[in-house]
From TrEMBL:
<feature type="transmembrane region" description="Helical">
    <location>
        <begin position="170"/>
        <end position="189"/>
    </location>
</feature>
<keyword id="KW-1133">Transmembrane helix</keyword>
<dbReference type="InterPro" id="IPR036259">
    <property type="entry name" value="MFS_trans_sf"/>
</dbReference>
<feature type="transmembrane region" description="Helical">
    <location>
        <begin position="76"/>
        <end position="94"/>
    </location>
</feature>
<dbReference type="InterPro" id="IPR051617">
    <property type="entry name" value="UNC-93-like_regulator"/>
</dbReference>
<feature type="transmembrane region" description="Helical">
    <location>
        <begin position="235"/>
        <end position="259"/>
    </location>
</feature>
<keyword id="KW-0472">Membrane</keyword>
<dbReference type="Pfam" id="PF05978">
    <property type="entry name" value="UNC-93"/>
</dbReference>
<feature type="transmembrane region" description="Helical">
    <location>
        <begin position="100"/>
        <end position="117"/>
    </location>
</feature>
<keyword id="KW-0812">Transmembrane</keyword>
<feature type="transmembrane region" description="Helical">
    <location>
        <begin position="137"/>
        <end position="158"/>
    </location>
</feature>
<dbReference type="InterPro" id="IPR010291">
    <property type="entry name" value="Ion_channel_UNC-93"/>
</dbReference>
<dbReference type="GO" id="GO:0016020">
    <property type="term" value="C:membrane"/>
</dbReference>
<protein>
    <recommendedName>
        <fullName>UNC93-like protein MFSD11</fullName>
    </recommendedName>
</protein>
<feature type="transmembrane region" description="Helical">
    <location>
        <begin position="314"/>
        <end position="333"/>
    </location>
</feature>
<feature type="transmembrane region" description="Helical">
    <location>
        <begin position="412"/>
        <end position="433"/>
    </location>
</feature>
<comment type="similarity">
    <text>Belongs to the unc-93 family.</text>
</comment>
């Protein structure tokens, strides 16, 4: 195992632990806060508002994250972000509106740092041949976070319809501890091997793919930060990035749906049975199964698929899988399921099995889109990885913030209609950009990037 691949594994395991805690909390937050409100009338914190704040701050700070990383490097940014997640989860020990919303804003800042740092660090430890593989492996390991936390919640909540204070404290304690362990794992991340990747189509042999670059010229921190911000703005208005923003927006909307709306909707549907609250955790587990299976498949087969025809077959697969999920959810759950416990039914008798199938499809389809987005960005913007991934997370988090802001008032059918429209635009945009990029690369197979010549001209 070489140093770069070991870095990817440590990064993946650290993220898996931190997000075991955070994604489990996000999955049950609506249910948890409803139980707190039932005991404390003066508590009015709303999960959807909390999540909207997280993603609104996340979106804003994505513009500043590349500047922070340009000064500190990706490892410090990742560690800082992880500490923000620990603080957010620990804040649930003190149920107060101001504490909830303040912690939500803090974790929004941390999310921008950890995800932008992740994008740069993953790219630094990959080349053109390994980017798809590393993205798939990261996604598979990372999404194992859906298992342990949600399985734990499934057993804790399985013996009753209500969630009392002792049960909540057990959940908060365990999740905070897991996030802290994940932060310690990220603390041991090692410095990336400095490299610049070139593909075979550019006329470079495998032995020469990794070229050492000189250490970057050191500038004043504020100048470096300002330059990184300007680079992010310039990159955002390029045709490829503007088109890909449609794909990013869709991933943000479906992230909102599967992480904060769908599982809670299953738990609120009384037709699911007396132990429906435990289905909230079980739904999260099935989402995780889909994510891990998708990430593992596309991590193992990434080089074969992308080498022959690119990532579009994977994205098209994600399209059909998500269409199945949307149709099954539309039939299985009532329109008012996202709000509170309801005795209403969908167009068929509520089925826990069909609900779990929908969860599995949501997870698998999400893996299809995200693994290919990571891979395309890592190859297409190899020298601009920090701003590229920051812009990805900016568009994704803006969409998520908007979605969470209307979720308290929008019924299930409206939310599914929005997803149905945006999935076609997002899929078409990805396929077009990838096709255009591949076509351009094929037309000039031996053209050498001028930036490479400039960077290596003095190293004879």
């Amino acid at each position: 195992m070489d140093r770069a691949f070991l870095n990817v594994i440590i990064l993946s395991l650290g993220f898996m632990l931190v997000f075991t805690a955070f994604q489990t909390m996000g999955n049950i937050e609506k249910t948890i806060l409803s139980s707190i409100h039932a005991e404390f009338n003066d508590f009015n914190g709303d999960a959807y508002i909390s999540l909207a704040i997280i993603y609104a701050v996340f979106a804003t700070c994505n513009w500043l994250a590349p500047s922070y990383i340009s000064v500190t490097g990706p490892r410090v940014a990742i560690l800082t972000g992880a500490l923000c997640y620990v603080l957010f989860i620990a804040s649930f020990f003190w149920p107060h509106d101001a504490v909830l919303y303040t912690a939500s804003a803090i974790v929004g800042v941390g999310a921008a740092l950890i995800w932008t740092g992740h994008g740069q660090y993953l790219t630094e430890n990959s080349d053109n041949d390994t980017m798809s593989r590393n993205a798939g492996i990261f996604w598979a390991i990372f999404q194992m976070s859906q298992f342990a936390g949600n399985l734990f919640v499934f057993f804790v909540f399985s013996d009753s319809e209500t969630i009392d204070a002792p049960k909540r404290k057990i959940v908060f304690s365990v999740l905070t501890g897991v996030a802290a362990v994940g932060t310690l794992a990220l603390l041991i991340l090692r410095k990336s091997p400095q490299r610049l990747s070139l593909g075979e189509a550019e006329g470079v042999s495998s032995a020469d793919k990794e070229l050492r670059l000189p250490e970057p010229v050191r500038e004043r921190p504020l100048l470096t930060a300002w330059r990184a911000f300007k680079d992010a703005v310039k990159l955002f208005i390029t045709p490829n990035m503007l088109l890909l923003s449609l794909t990013f927006i869709y991933t943000g909307l479906e992230l909102t749906f599967y992480s904060g709306v769908y599982s809670n909707s299953v738990g609120f549907t009384e037709g699911m049975g007396e132990k429906r609250k435990s289905l909230v955790g079980l739904s999260g587990i099935f989402i995780g199964v889909g994510e891990v299976v998708g990430g593992a498949i596309f991590g193992i087969l990434a080089s074969k698929i992308s080498g022959r025809c690119g990532g579009w077959p994977v994205v098209i697969t994600g399209l059909f899988v998500h269409l199945f999920a949307f149709i099954s959810i539309f039939l299985n759950l009532p329109n008012d399921a996202p709000f509170a416990d309801t005795a209403n039914k969908g167009f068929i008798e509520p089925s826990p099995i069909l609900a779990m199938a929908g969860s599995l499809a949501l997870g698998f389809g999400d893996a299809c889109y995200n693994t290919q987005v990571y891979s395309l960005l890592g190859v297409l913007f190899a020298k601009e990885s920090a701003p590229a991934f920051a812009l990805f997370k900016f568009c994704q988090s803006v969409a998520a913030a908007i979605s969470f802001s209307y979720s308290p008032n929008a019924g299930l059918h409206i939310q599914l209609a929005v997803l149905l429209v945006t999935i076609f635009f997002g899929t078409a945009a990805f396929c077009y950009v990838e096709h255009r990029t591949k076509k351009t690369k094929d037309e000039v197979p031996r053209e050498i990037d001028p930036a490479l010549v400039d960077a290596t001209s003095g190293d004879d």
